[in-house]
Amino acid sequence: MLMWADSKKNLRHSIADDIVAVIYIPFVKTIDWIKEKFNSITTSSPSPDKIIAKYKEELIKNRKLRLENIRLEVKISKVVKRQELLRASQEIREEIKLAEIYHINLSPRKQLIKINLGRSNCVIDDQPLVDAYGVMGQVIRARPYDSTVRLITDQNHIMHVQFKTDPKKPLEEGVRTIARGTGTETKDRMIKLPYLPKSLFTKNKNIVGQEIITSGLGEIYPHGYPVGKIVRIENKPGSKYLTAYVRPAAHLDRTREAMVVWTAKVYKRMNALYEQDLKASKITSAKKINPNKLKNGNPVKRAIVFGAVIECP
After folding, report:
1. Which long-range contacts (CB under 8 A, 24 or more apart) does 82-89 make?
2. pLDDT digits (tens, 9 = 90+) for 268-308
3. How far apart are the C-alpha atoms of 144 and 308, rounded to whole Å?
4. 6 and 142 part of one domain
5. Where in the sequence is the domain holding 219, given as residue range(s)?
């Protein structure tokens, strides 16, 4: 049929050529499209070196994003912790200053930590340290720019405590006693109450779970701050007293920030130490300050560091 149609001389164009052209053009365009795509893929595909470089670049970006995420989580955690510390400081009703724990020594014999506040911040020996949950310990050595704190679980730490008042009997004071750190006596970090009268523990009364708070006696801790809960009782035959073991309320092994507390007794001792240091250093140009003078609602904090008189905010 193509040959017959092509033999007609009166046609302007060959029908066979037209039909072949119709079939050929899509075929050629398809081949050109495949060739173009193949060329674009081969020219755009990077070399192995470029692929490795791109991988390293994306890996670095991923690590940076993970690091930023970790930093954000840390900041959120710090904000939450500081909110808890702020709420705890409002309950203390004393002047406080935030301190950061930067070193921990948890040897079997001594349980000590170091904080970044010292005499230049008007911190003195025997000053209490607390966190958002309970009592942590007391300063045993204040240096110019840092201080060493003995934790309440240290075997050489002794404090005055009492049982928390029963809400059903608000007018009845809790039993007062002495608490001491256990050190290496127990596997867990505990406090013990070695001199409890046996009348506290009977068949009808179980003191396990009772909350222990500071009694306010002595020259160290303010009254009413949490110490911990009794977790077990030891009743030795022939002994006149019970021994109770208390789990500390403070997060001794987890917290990074704590609060140094200035109570009225701390101010009293601070002023006495200031007067002693003033006489010993023979400073005659120091401005006389009334110990009872208030600054921002509190007595003035002052100290002598490297022979110079300073006032702490």
Report:
1. 82/257, 84/132, 84/133, 85/131, 85/132, 85/257, 85/258, 85/259, 87/132, 88/130, 88/131, 88/132, 88/133, 88/259, 89/259
2. 888 888 888 888 777 655 555 555 565 555 677 888 888 78
3. 12
4. no
5. 93-262
Q: Which two tokens stand for residue 102?
A: 């930067």
| Separation in Å, CA 30 to CA 18, 43, 208 | 19, 20, 87
The first and second tokens of residue 127, run together, are: 């000053």
Q: Are the C-beta atoms of residues 111 and 190 closer than 8 Å to each other? A: no
Select from 247, 262, 277 the last residue of a domain. 262
Cα gap 149→105, rounded to integer Å: 10
Query: Are 242 and 271 part of one and the same domain?
Result: no
**Checking phi first, is residue 70 left (phi over 0); if not, alpha (psi -120 to 50) or beta?**
alpha
Specify the pTM.
Answer: 0.69
Q: What is the maximal distance between C-alpha atoms in the chain?
A: 137
Strands 135-142 and 294-295, bridge-based pairing: unpaired
Task: Report if residue 66 sits inside a domain.
Answer: no
Q: Which of 226, 245, 262 is the last residue of a domain?
A: 262
Residues 257 and 271 in one domain: no
Q: Are residues 39 and 128 in the same domain?
A: no
